[in-house]
Amino acid sequence: MLKNFDGNKSDFTRNREYGLPESYPRPLVKDLLFYIQRNLNYNTVVYTLNTNYAGVIDPTHPLNVFWIRYEQNGETKQLNPIQTKLAYGYKSTRINNETFKFQLVSYNQDFYLAKNDAGNYIVSTELEDELLQVSNIYVYAEDFGVFPQVKYIEFFGDTIDYNFPVYKKIVL
User: Fold this and answer.
1) pLDDT per residue over 112-167, tens digit each?
2) pLDDT value of residue 17
């Protein structure tokens, strides 16, 4: 929380005690909104804007979701039906032609897809009374067979109001 913030960005630093390893790759894909990485491997789930040839968002499926398999030479691959229904898929509601509310199927948190002041689409959410533009999420899980048990989730992004780096850890 940035209560009593005096406007000096040089006073703001982000604590380097989070779980996301610095060596993890950052996806470089067109229309990237945010991505999810896990402690189990480098493979990354990517969420991009889903538009038609004219640049209009698909109102029923505003996000494309797919893997970048860094451990298989960076090949891209669609989610399988189980991953879509139980882990990385989403359910969305159209608010208007440029704004959508959605939740990941595995996490009960409201996210919003909307244009920012610069006219670019972003994904935002509210955590601990702070509005955050989400850039990436890191999930730490212990592998217990078919369904890993998630221990904590880390959110990375920027504050909407001040455009400062934000880190939030949710222990489950």
Assistant:
1) 999 998 999 999 999 988 899 999 999 999 887 777 889 999 999 999 988 899 99
2) 55
Cα–Cα–Cα angle for 135, 138, 140, nearest 5°? 170
Q: Name the token pair of 156.
A: 């990375």
- In-domain check, residue 25: no
Q: Which residues make Cβ contacts (< 8 Å) with residue 84, sequence separation at least 6?
A: 65, 105
Check pLDDT > 50 for residue 1: no
Separation CA 65–CA 77 (nearest Å): 9
Q: In this predicted model, what pLDDT tens digit does every residue of 5-21 receive, in sequence order? A: 344 434 444 444 568 88
- Decide if 159 is inside a domain: yes
SS3 content of the chain, % helix, strand, coil (to 5): 5, 50, 40
**Cβ atoms of 30 and 131 closer than 8 Å:** no
Residues 6+ apart with CB under 8 A from 161: 2, 131
Q: How far is CA 1 from CA 39, 48, 109, 131, 138, in A?
A: 27, 28, 19, 10, 20
Quote the domain boundaries for residue 151.
Answer: 31-171
Tokens of 57: 């968002």
Kindly report the pTM of this predicted structure: 0.88
Give Cα separations from 45 to 8, 93, 129 (angstroms): 35, 21, 27
How many structural domains compose the chain?
Answer: 1
